[in-house]
Design a protein that fits this description.
- The chain has about 80 residues and is an alpha+beta fold.
- About 35% of the residues lie in helices and about 25% in strands.
- It has a single domain, classed as Mth169, Chain: A, CATH 3.30.1280.10.
- The chain has 2 helices and 3 strands; from the N terminus they run βαβαβ.
- Strands 2-1-3 form a 3-stranded antiparallel beta sheet, covered by helices on one side.
- The chain starts with a strand and ends with a strand.
Length: about 80
């Protein structure tokens, strides 16, 4: 089962990378950019068939290692196979 974990800075947390992206885009003429935030995506392939078990395991991995729970939030997405 393929799972994506999207990790982003919490609202109100300083995001210097996002600010640098925002400023650079504006300097390049993209005046409509109001805000940019930088995060990360972690792709996991799990040998688990049950979605509930996969979500629970991924949540534990995210809380213990993948995300810094003090300054980051995460979202988990299961990618369905088209078979």
């Amino acid at each position: 089962m393929k799972i994506y974990v999207k990790i982003m800075p919490k609202e109100g947390v300083l995001d210097p990378q996002g600010k640098a992206i925002e400023n650079s885009l504006k300097q390049l003429g993209f005046a409509d950019v109001q805000e940019a935030r930088q995060g990360k995506i972690v792709e996991l392939n799990l040998d688990i068939k049950n979605e509930e078990d996969a979500l629970a395991l991924t949540r534990e991995m995210s809380e213990r290692l993948l995300a810094n729970m003090v300054i980051e939030d995460f979202e988990i997405s299961i990618i369905k196979d088209d078979l």
